[in-house]
Amino acid sequence: MKTNVTTLPMRMRVSLIAATLTIGLWLAMPVWAAPFSFSTGTTDGKLGALSRRPSPGKIETETADDFQLKDTTVITGATIIGLLPAGTLLKNISNVEVELYHIFPRDSANPPSGKVPSRVNSPADVEIDSATRDGTLKTLVFSASLLNGNFMVQNTVVNRIQTMTGGDGPRTGEEVEITIQFTTPIILPAGDYFFRPEVLLAADSDFDFLYLSAPRPIASGTPFATDRQAWIRNSNLAPDWLRIGTDIIDGATPPTFNMTFSLKGETIPEAGTPGMANCTGQTISALANQFGSINAAASTLGVSVAALQEAVRLFSEP
Question: Please, are residues 263 and 67 in contact by the beta-carbon 8 Å criterion?
Fold first, then answer.
């Protein structure tokens, strides 16, 4: 039997209208879209690993740790925690660069060189070009804050990036947090990745930024089943990587480490597929639908419309 809404009592009519509006709002604001956040938790004081940009007299050294995306995600910011030499002014942090890597053997020579004990679960040989962000190129901005002026780590890996060296020993300095905002956000499809930040100190600095470890398995952050240990390499070792705990520090029961970092952003479940002809249009449409318009998407993400469009272009390339 068909019921005419106008013949119903007022209270019932109001209830039906409210339900209709609620359903309409639910359809307009997809419930599957959600803020994204990832964290390895707080540092544990066990390790400081070199992660620096190349500069005169100093070769590039990279430390990387992994994270997971369950949906296509736009990453808008990150934090890292590290150790600076005691007395270092925060303004002496002159640049930060971020690279992301797939998991070996993607983007890698396979079979590998055989010069390291293992490449299983390591970062790839080369970075994801479309995801690199650099302060000198103004694709990211950063700020630093002092957390602890007298912080000690039990061991470091700085110069002895070789198997079974045991590390370079303890060090004391300033614990600092670097907050990174990607002015051109990073868009990635669902998958497993490695996050690699590098920090450059002013040329007159005698020491470097040491990336601090966090507990493994993740205790106070965002645990995930495939959590891999941290890896390191320098320009002499590349394209290979070594496991910081298992290969370098070694020992009767080799330790394994996470590094202390966090990521934030928004999921875009209905984004396009990179390499497909309609990827750019579908991703722009998904953003507009999710946030109300592309302008609203850019505003919510804290970037310009042009920067968001550039991020979509980079994401869409094969």
Answer: yes
Helix (H, G, I), strand (E, B) or coil at 23: helix
Instruction: For residue range 153-168, list pLDDT tens digits in order.
Output: 999 999 999 999 999 9
C-alpha distances (whole Å) from 12 to each of 5, 249, 256, 262 are 9, 71, 62, 49
Q: Name the residue among 275, 265, 306 with its Cα closest to residue 33.
A: 265
| 82 strand-pairing partners | 176, 211
Q: Biggest alpha carbon distance in the chain? A: 85
Q: Taking the model in full, what pTM does it have?
A: 0.90
pLDDT value of residue 310: 98
For range 29-50, the mean pLDDT: 87
d(CA 74, CA 289): 15
Dist CA 258 CA 130 (whole Å): 25
| Listed residue (77, 207, 63, 224) closest to 142, CA to CA | 77
Residue 242 has pLDDT above 70, yes or no: yes
Read off the tokens for 197.
Answer: 């930040």
Q: Is the dihedral of CA 117, 120, 123, 129 positive or negative?
A: positive
Residues, the chain: 318
Q: Of 264, 231, 223, 234, whose CA–CA distance to 248 is shortest?
A: 231
CA–CA distance, 164 with 227 (Å, rounded to integer): 23
From residue 256, give the alpha-carbon distance in Å to each of 38, 80, 137, 213, 216.
20, 19, 34, 10, 7
What gap in Å lies between CA 134 and CA 96, rounded to an integer?
Answer: 6
Give CA angle at 196 (60, 172), nearest 5°. 70
Which pLDDT does position 204 carry in this prediction?
63
CA–CA distance, 312 with 318 (Å, rounded to integer):
12
